[in-house]
């Protein structure tokens, strides 16, 4: 995307761990509705939502932003997951659906810490030779851009971007965490990231049962830790395992812990950790 269309206040920097997947064809929206955990049918063209793809046991394989350009063109902004493997796995369910799934290798994802020129909330907008999304909150502006022109690499800005996501409860799933957690365990209701009423999709029965029976006993917690820790590490309390780390960034982490738990000193790999509040504002 040209810098001429960059929102005022900051240059675009590359977000290389995001890929753009295109679902195209007369059956694109119907296929996405049947496979993904949020309500694509209720999403108006020109809008986007948080969503994901689950195993039959209701565990998140991958999380993404889903953009509905129209009924025959959808984009997935896939974070962390290997796009080729994701496309291959998803393609096994196409059967007779009139949809083509491809990696949009011509498109790049970038970001800036400034307000979008036109996009707002869940509405995305064309900007120059690409599109922009409002990835900010009421207290912190951010724009995510999708276009053909690569942005510059900026490790410091990228780390700040990822830390913002973490603080606001957007979990990131590397290969070790894919297929490990339910939407409720990842507290994805905070992002309005899944539906319990739209009808069948892989894992829907487990997600709906957990919701309606009130059985979500674990959820996402944000912790500040005295050392960098790896995803999958155990969170310990009083010598016993309390939960597991989902992702970490710049001295903070997201972990799945019991929703109701007694106050106790927490540690990961022997490093003390302190609870921090999850911030609001990324729901769409």
From TrEMBL:
Keywords: Transit peptide
InterPro entries found in the cross-reference section: TrmE/GcvT-like, YgfZ/GCV_T_CS, YgfZ/GcvT
Gene3D superfamilies: 2.40.30.160, Probable tRNA modification gtpase trme, domain 1
Entry superkingdom: Bacteria
This protein's name: Folate-binding protein
Organism: Luteimonas endophytica
Lineage of the species this protein comes from: Bacteria, Pseudomonadati, Pseudomonadota, Gammaproteobacteria, Lysobacterales
